[in-house]
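To: structure desk
From: M.T.
Subject: fold request, one chain
Message: Could you run this one when you get a chance? Sequence is below, nothing fancy, just the single chain.
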Amino acid sequence: MRSKTQRLAVLFGLLISVVFLYFAFSRLNPAAVLDTLRQADPAPILIGAVGYLAAIVLIAWRWGFLLRSAARIPFKDLNALVFIGYMGNNVYPFRSGELLRIWLLQRNFGVPVARGATTVVVERILDGLVMLGFIFLALTRLDIASPEITQVANVATPIFFVGLLVFIVLAARPDWLRALVRWVARVLPARLGTIVTNLGEDLVLGLEGLRTPADLAGTIFASFASWLAAAVIFWVVGFAFGIDNGFIPMLLVVGVVNLAGLIPASPGQIGVFEFFTATTLIATGVPEAVATTYALAIHGVVWLPVTLVGFYFLLRQGLNLSALTGARPVDETASATAK
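Reply: Done. Structure tokens follow.
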């Protein structure tokens, strides 16, 4: 039953990707795309492909701040796990890369699954808030009227702000969470109640990084630094196609595209990425053929190098792509660590 549900979810994601690909390319002349590609300068694209790896390194640096209270893990090891996670998200559905890096964190360093998962959820919320900041900053500087951009911002804003508020409250008042967990544990069978209690404590400890001022400041700074680096890459790659309307529009592109990642699509956000990148650029005055060709190119820049490096690190772990299926039984791993 579970396997059938997963297959239906995968098919649903693929269908969404196909729909967005259709919207992105239905009115486009393939000859215009090929002509734009032939005229592109390869140097900015190559610079972007290498530079984007640096943005991922900054994300690993941020993860270190969130995990510092749980374990002092060497940066090179965190970096490898983050690349593996991005690779998994790019090639498998259900954001399996996140599960894989959490599992490897537990396997390699003994960090409980619930504690590692908490830090990953905090990362995603911080990412969403940075993206919203990019969008709102850009909209105050640009004259844009796009229903797609407005809709993405309207849907994402309450999700991320409520999520951040919940985590800040739980981090500041861990006793509230402990009291809730104890209440739930009392109404459960003894064995299950013990598991819930242990998982709740791991969740409290996973939020420790938000209670330490230095770690919180480092996390926030690294969040903005990593995504500003990504926006610089988007901006640099734009020069390959003659897109020179400034850095602020690229902040808008990065913000919209990443918030659109909330839409359940195929691995790597194929279709969704191209549609929202092209739509945002067109709204800033970039011609449709150029915007769509750029969308294809920048997707390759942020997808291929990270995926290759992540697969290399996966092999260094003594695993291969089939290991991603082994990352699914996270609940069972969590139960084991709670015993």
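Reply (cont.): The chain has 15 helices and no strands. Let me know if you need anything else for the meeting.
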